[in-house]
């Protein structure tokens, strides 16, 4: 069986978890409807088998060979129908599960991309990871179980009608006993889901904590904080394990009840049916049929219990997905987007007074590094501001246009898992000369040469096999390969040694010749190679000129880049 995720997942109904699940089912109407029809056929075929066996036994007791052969043939036909419907139902169920799960993954990834830089501030990392690893399973199960649950319900109704027709007292015992059993089992489902919900939240928080520890491991080791956080994580992990044991305890009680209660009910109905057969109130064939029905009801009862359980879990999972889908990005496209001329244009941050002439290598040195970061955020339109390109406010341009023409590269960027070549050239431009030039400009050729397979080597999660300086150089090479019209770099050499920084400073201007480049730094090596240096204090431009001119004429600038008090 082949399955391909939908190219366009569609626009979800995120008004509530229930509406979202219904929308998922509606996106695959044909397969979902076929699953329900096959589920009903599969269960009803099984439900009719005890009746056929009973009729065959009655024919045998009357020595009616014709009746025996007829009902034996009916039983064979029901068996074949049940087998075929079961196989096809399972195929539909798997397809429905995959479609619901992977459509949710597509929507989650789309929502994460839509939120962009606002995602970490709005949703915990562990929450997003848990949606992609745990919640999609529950949503897939919720869509899958609908077919079996519907078939089980129809089968129980079919059995009830047959039993009431054969014997009203015995039929009433079965008809009334089934809801009682469901109610008893249902008493265990609610506390189970409360425990599961709390466990799921704790798991998401712990996943976030683990990610934070891994991403900051080098810093933690440097300040000696690794043992403290490791001990705290261990304590929280043990608490989560104990919580998981409590959840498993309730689950085991539910599983035991699903076996014990139907089994006890089977014994009761069989005993009553045997007494009725001895009194002549039902035939031997009906006794066999009653036993068969009671044994058969164990299956649809468990199916219904499972359906309630999985639908409830799916609803809880869908609630989390809907919560993510309902988040809106901090920045949205204007209702009537403006246009700007093609080619480099002056980029201006009105608030600080920073002006970036097109095609030049500019540097910003700020007394407070956060001021430089804030300027870059405004120029890259990661916050709303009055910044302009070609005199047109960035807020009036489509966000995609801004991202295409202005690239911000900071030290929060990550290296992703996969071949290093695909990481450095994600758009697969195939320009090996440009790639080699970018690696030389970023002083990263030695990193590639040290890898066993060179550019074909696989990068581990977040590039953890590389040191902080190596990661920084690879990120810079990736930004240079992208060759954007305007490149805004934030402290691109903060984690490298002085010799490497000197090589990067010497090669960066040539690598970006003719393109607008801004570097936020207080490194004299980089500032010395800039065409123009802008000195920022208290978030405002206070001086401009070459590095040498500012160093000689501006004491505050000299103190900033020399790391000494003026």
TrEMBL record:
Which GO molecular-function terms appear in the entry?
ABC-type oligopeptide transporter activity; ATP binding; ATP hydrolysis activity
Protein localization: Cell membrane
Topology in the membrane? Multi-pass membrane protein
What's a GO cellular component annotated to this UniProt protein?
plasma membrane
Q: Which UniProt keywords apply?
A: Membrane, Transmembrane, Transmembrane helix
Short name of one Pfam family for this protein?
ABC_tran
**Any idea where the ABC transporter domain is?**
248-563
Q: Which PANTHER family match?
A: ATP-BINDING CASSETTE SUB-FAMILY B MEMBER 10, MITOCHONDRIAL, ATP-DEPENDENT PERMEASE MDL1, MITOCHONDRIAL
Q: What is its main location?
A: membrane
- What region holds the ABC transmembrane type-1 domain? 34-313
Q: What is this protein called?
A: ABC-type multidrug transport system, ATPase and permease component
The regions listed as transmembrane in this protein's record are 30-48, 68-88, 145-164, 170-189, 259-278
Record carries keyword Transmembrane:
yes
Look up the domain of life of the source: Bacteria
Which species is this UniProt entry from? Micromonospora avicenniae
Matching entries from InterPro entries are given as: ABC1_TM_dom, ABC1_TM_sf, ABC_transporter-like_ATP-bd, ABC_transporter-like_CS, P-loop_NTPase, Type_1_exporter
